[in-house]
Amino acid sequence: xxxFENVNKIQYEGPKSKNPLAxxxxxxxxxxxxxxxxxxxxxxxxxxxxxxxxxxxxxxxGTALRNWDKYDGMDRAKARVEAAFEFFDKIGAKYFCFHxxxxxxxxxxxxxxxxxxxxxxxxxxxxxxxxxxxxLWNTANNFTNPxxxxxAASSNNADVFxxxxxxxxxxxxxxxxxxxxxxxxxxxxxxxxTLLNTDLGLEQDNLARFFQMAVDYAKEIDFGAQFxxxxxxxxxxxxxxxxxxxxxxxxxxxxxxxxxxxxxxEANHATLAGHTFEHELRYARVNGILGSVDANxxxxxLGWDTDEFPADIYSTTLAMYEIIKxxxxxxxxxxxxxxxxxxxxxxxxxxxxxxxxMDHFAVGYKVASQLVEDKVFENIIDDRYASYKEGIGKDIxxxxxxxxxxxxxxxxxxxxKNKSGRLEVIKATINQYLLNAxxx
Length: 440
Ligand code: XUL
Ligand code: CO
Fold this sequence. Notes:
2 domains, Xylose_isom_bac, eight-stranded parallel β-barrel
């Protein structure tokens, strides 16, 4: 049985290829800095968008044509596993990610849901044995079911806190069973709509208690995955607690959780927070908490999370710059938390979309590597902050200055000379690198 009978294994054909079912820029074997593209980029497939979602939106029903939809319930869940592993192999992705409810339907009780999970996890484990595909991360969906109407770990209802804990416990066990390299917490409904009925202090304390219990349980079962918090500023709640990387960091520091978590940075979440993707990556990187990436992009004309496949090579270049400077993503990867548009409902669109996303990150990687090799930004920064390498600047960074010595210095200053920031030429240089990377 094959689920994608019109598609063969996707090959690299180079920038001139007109074959929509071939990579133009992503060449898995190409070596950059002594590592293959495949090893460094660690692409992941998001199970929910690619195998579970039906492309419905708040105004319209699902449009997706998927040949596994001829089945129902557990049969469909099993068909999806088969289709997924065929897809991973054909697209050449080495990682995948899922929520509990993506892989198996919920039952009428938690017990039944867990049983459904066990059946599908055993099947996934079998498929993993015959392939080199690994679990980048799994997570618990503690936001879709009506029981999470007021939140999960930050719900006002302690029964919901308990239920949420049970779901995460199960996923930690499954992560261990499948050798998951990371475990993700996206606070889908961990936030609030209005302060008029919210105890913000208790909700945040409870969220921290929940994270601590997860840390303790992972230790107890010897599950060594990297824990990741995925910040998002809003949607579904008006005020999400893990608003952006800086607020997630403050939260971790406040509750003493900083040694157990890194961040999973998503491009569209960054822009929803009013940041660039590279800002979020940079903040996480300089604070030592850049763990993984959800690769997608938003629509600048729409104010919500559209989860589009990455197409903006300027953005993928600046993102890859951060990732290279981070020394890679360690156990993390580039997970395509991206969905084909509602109008792209044919099954082959899944291939076109992932090929495009992988190509665009490959371009970004190649161009960013060149920028790093030529020290383009490093030279700019060195020069721009040169005043801290000698004289009074050196005293400041070495802790040898105080207000009195600074006042004395300032009183004797004859003139203050600033230098141009040269933003226009910097942007032109980046474009030059982008255009020249594949020029003959
Ligand atoms: C939602 C989102 C999630 C997380 C995992 O915006 O990004 O899919 O990645 O729960
Ligand atoms: Co995401």
